[in-house]
Specification:
The complex is a heterodimer of chains A (about 375) and B (about 425).
Chain A lengths: L4 H16 L17 E5 L4 E3 L3 E3 L1 E9 L5 E7 L3 E9 L4 E8 L1 E9 L8 E10 L8 H33 L3 H17 L1 H5 L4 H6 L14 H11 L5 H20 L5 H19 L11 H26 L1 H19 L2 E2 L2 E2 L7 H19 L1 H6 L2
Parallel strand pairs in A: 1-4, 3-9
Antiparallel strand pairs in A: 1-2, 4-7, 5-6, 5-8, 8-9, 10-11
Chain B lengths: L1 H19 L4 H11 L7 H4 L19 E9 L4 H19 L33 E7 L37 E7 L2 H15 L3 E9 L1 E2 L28 H7 L15 E10 L1 H5 L3 H8 L22 E2 L12 H4 L11 E2 L2 E7 L5 E11 L6 H11 L6 E11 L19
Antiparallel strand pairs in B: 1-3, 1-4, 2-3, 2-11, 5-9, 6-10, 6-11, 8-10, 9-10
The chains are: A alpha+beta (about 375), B alpha+beta (about 425).
Chain lengths: ~375, ~425
């Protein structure tokens, strides 16, 4: 499921939403600020804003284009930081812009006839103070730092193990490559939500054949998996292997500069378990090699690492949730341990229906409390 | 308010589930009557919908609450038998939509030594707005019945979409029959009897029950919610938009095969929803994925459900209020060069999946003038960019050419048999 580019944006959303979305959460802004909507009459050479002052909170502008050129309207904070904008307001149309402004201060309105230039600006004043939830907690900051260090340790191993796998493929050592395939994937699966935050990389590295979008090439781990287990190595297998390593290196260097929020950690922990439930439990992920349990173990490891980073915060805010999390992670560990074989795991095809069901139930039981972590982190 | 609504629906689901599974359909109906906030048999939901007309009923008819959909393969090799079956079906279908038995004295009052010709479970039940709608799949137009030259040009296989996991046992079929009604037993009765009439000539390939509508097809209807808990179909094409229906739904004269003028295409997709995973997703993310707020159903950045989505509004940092990957943006006519479709889908729960999850989802049914120009570009965009793909999987698919309506004395698909075979 991960393989579509769509997946990526979910993680991306996490970032953006916190600030922008206050306006569109559960509380639809039915109750507008007392003054009601502020009419803006935009023409080709004027930008008449009916009121130039508002209380902090939800501010609604109704922008009417009375000119002949397509226009747009902005509310800027200091330094031309965009607070909200509406584009493509065609002549004659009225469009609505709802902006969340939390802090009092001097802002600017701007109409941009022809949708270019600095626009016709005016001062706009916001008074009072609205509630704003900012994670300045040092424990939260420590959590993201600690997780980032862990991610970097994993990306290092990912690059090393992928290089070993790629070399085996290129030297046509099929048995060795088969043995290295699930090992390299361990590090990939542990940090997958991080990879997904870079939209273009994840599909290249981890698309499954039926997940490849029309016009795109089937590349990455699963293409080599198919070559090794089903078709035998093909003329371009070596090139695909080189590409895989290049994509992994790209990921590693980008991950170094990644800045995660505590909410992203919490969502990442949840998403990793989603991966288990929709991809690994069903045997869809590694459909040729059937090494799904390795990926399963790694997703759970990744989820646990994110929760571990947030541990002091959860301990402080909801100790009983932490107890539940510990119990449920341990229960999943126990179920997985039953299927260990040597240094790795049984093949998916060696599992009985009852085995699979038992794992599914353990993951579901864990998924629920993990999904509560984001709420605890958000502190609401 | 939201909470109250969703609880009611939940109870409705439980009742319908029992009926849908055939666990004792009667008990299911009783459950439904007991638990539903409104009595089932009020005048409007119980009334009959006219069978005859320029277009088949069950397309722009205000979407009923329940559906039973079946896809069949024709087993006879006789063109005449197929033609006779369509005639016989039409007569029975017209009777059942009036609230009658499939045959006169069909259930009781016939020869006691004979098995009753009507199965009887809809006796005493009103018409319940039953509509029966037929469509023909691509496979009907092979060489078996001399229909190859009647194949509409736009009736060709749908392409593979990214992430499709289609089960052949839930896809395709020579013929489809859609029964919609406000009483599940009425819909099930209709399909059961049409299938029975067809024994020896057709066999059931797959079927699907839907327990709750997920679209409005009339401005007189409130927008229902799908199993993600969101209002679905706010911007759907509505029966009141005649000009838009001509443009987006009805095949026009001279456009394709003459027999299809006044008809349309039906696209069916069984969309499994990973509801357990969805339920663990934050409200913020759910709303970003859909592009609407969950309570009111307003497009993000707007206030009321029917406020027009504004895809050009951005918030802090210039990020769009309705994300680039939001479902309502990707499926919008604005993003698709004006393309619209008429959706008529239903929630389903087909028991469980053996892994402790409900086998739940949306049985997507939509009508349009040319699936390859409407559904295909829409699904291409959704399958590659929609965040929601993470939570859904398309497990069944069908495309059918839906002939126009039947006049008095006519029969379903008669246009296929005019001229030499």
């Amino acid at each position: 499921m991960i393989s579509t580019p769509a997946r990526v944006a979910v993680a991306g959303i996490g970032l953006a939403t916190v600030a922008v979305l206050a306006a569109c959460g559960t509380k639809t802004p039915q109750e507008q600020d007392k003054g009601g909507a502020i009419a803006v009459e935009a023409s080709d050479d004027a930008c008449k804003v009916a009121r130039t002052q508002a209380d902090a909170g939800t501010i609604t502008f109704e922008v009417t284009n009375k000119g002949d050129r397509v226009t747009e309207f902005y509310l800027y904070a200091e330094g031309d930081r965009i607070m909200g904008e509406v584009e493509n307001v065609t002549p004659g149309l009225t469009r609505r812009l709802i902006v969340e402004v939390h802090e009092a201060g001097e802002y600017q309105t701007a109409c941009k006839p022809g949708m270019q230039g600095e626009g016709i600006r005016d001062a706009f004043k916001v008074t009072g103070q609205a509630d704003k939830q900012v994670g300045t907690d040092t424990k939260l900051a420590d959590a993201t730092k600690s997780y980032q260090r862990w991610v970097n340790s994993q990306t290092g191993a990912l690059e090393t193990k992928t290089a070993e796998f790629v070399n085996a493929v290129k030297s046509k050592k099929v048995d060795q490559a088969k043995a290295l395939y699930p090992v390299a994937r361990v590090y990939w699966e542990r940090i997958e939500p991080v990879a997904e935050s870079f939209g273009d990389i994840d599909p290249k590295i981890d698309s499954r054949e039926d997940g490849v979008a029309p016009g795109e090439k089937f590349t990455g781990f699963h293409r080599l998996e198919k070559d090794l287990w089903v078709t035998g190595l093909r003329p371009d297998s070596a090139a695909i292997a080189d590409q895989l390593l290049a994509d992994v290196k790209d990921l590693v260097s980008r991950a170094e500069t990644l800045e995660l929020t505590p909410l992203q950690l919490a969502n990442g922990a949840k998403e990793l378990l989603d991966e288990v439930a929709t991809g690994k439990i069903t045997g869809e992920e590694d459909r040729y090699s059937h090494t799904d349990l390795w990926d399963f173990r790694s997703n759970v490891d990744g989820s646990q690492a994110a929760v571990a980073a947030l541990r002091p915060v959860i301990q402080e805010r909801d100790a009983s949730l932490l107890t539940t999390l510990d119990e449920r992670f341990a229960a999943v560990d126990k179920v997985l341990a039953k299927h260990q074989a040597g240094d790795g795991y049984k093949l998916y095809t060696q599992l009985t229906k009852a085995d699979i069901r038992e794992m599914s139930e353990a993951v579901d039981a864990l998924g629920e409390p993990v999904s509560q972590v984001s709420e605890v982190v958000a502190g609401q | 308010m939201t909470e109250r609504l969703s609880r009611r629906r939940l109870f409705g689901v439980a009742g319908a589930g029992a009926a849908a599974l055939g666990v004792g359909a009667a008990a299911g109906v009783v459950g439904e009557r007991t638990l539903s906030p409104e009595p089932v048999a009020n005048a409007e939901t119980a009334a009959a919908v006219p069978f005859h007309g320029a277009h088949q009923a069950g397309i722009v008819t205000p979407a009923q609450d329940r559906m039973h959909f079946v896809a069949l393969d024709v087993t006879t090799s006789s063109r005449e038998e197929l033609q006779d079956l369509l005639r016989e079906w039409t007569v029975a279908a017209e009777r059942m939509t009036r609230g009658l038995e499939a045959f006169e004295h069909g259930a009781v009052g016939g020869v006691p030594e004979a098995a009753p010709k009507d199965t009887g479970e809809a006796l005493d039940l009103p018409a319940s707005a039953l509509t029966l709608t037929i469509g023909f799949g691509l496979s009907l137009f092979d060489d078996r019945f001399g229909l190859a030259d009647k194949r509409p040009a736009a009736l060709k296989e749908l392409p593979h979409f990214a992430g499709d996991d289609l089960d052949p046992a839930r896809s395709g079929g020579d013929i489809c029959l859609q029964a919609c009604a406000n009483d599940p037993q009425v819909a099930v009765h209709a399909i059961r009897n049409l299938v029975r009439i067809g024994f020896g000539k057709v066999v059931v390939r797959w079927s699907q029950l839907g327990f709750g509508r997920t679209s409005s097809t009339s401005t007189s209807q409130a927008t229902p919610r799908n199993l993600f808990g969101f209002k679905d179909g706010t911007r759907n094409l509505k029966a009141e938009e005649a000009a838009e229906l001509e443009k987006h739904v009805w095949v026009q004269d001279g456009e394709d095969q003459a027999w299809l003028a006044g008809g349309t295409y039906l696209v069916a997709r069984r969309i499994r929803m990973h509801i357990e995973i969805w339920d663990r997703t934050t409200l913020l993310e759910q709303e970003q994925i859909i592009g609407r707020d969950k309570g009111e159903g307003a497009p993000l950045g707007q206030v009321k459900e029917f406020d027009k989505p504004d895809f050009d509004v951005a918030g802090e940092g210039g990020l769009p209020q309705i994300p680039a990957t939001a479902h309502i943006r990707l499926a919008s006519k604005e993003a698709l060069g004006g393309v619209r479709i008429l959706r008529r889908g239903y929630n389903f729960i087909d028991g469980s999946d053996g892994l402790g999850h409900l086998d739940a989802g949306l049985f997507f049914v939509a009508f349009m003038r040319d699936a390859h120009k409407q559904f295909v570009p829409m699904q291409r965009a959704l399958s590659t960019q929609d965040e929601m793909m993470e939570y859904v999987e398309h497990t069944g698919s069908g495309l059918y050419a839906v002939p126009p309506g039947v006049g008095s004395g006519g029969y379903w698909g008669s246009g296929l048999f005019t001229g030499s075979p």
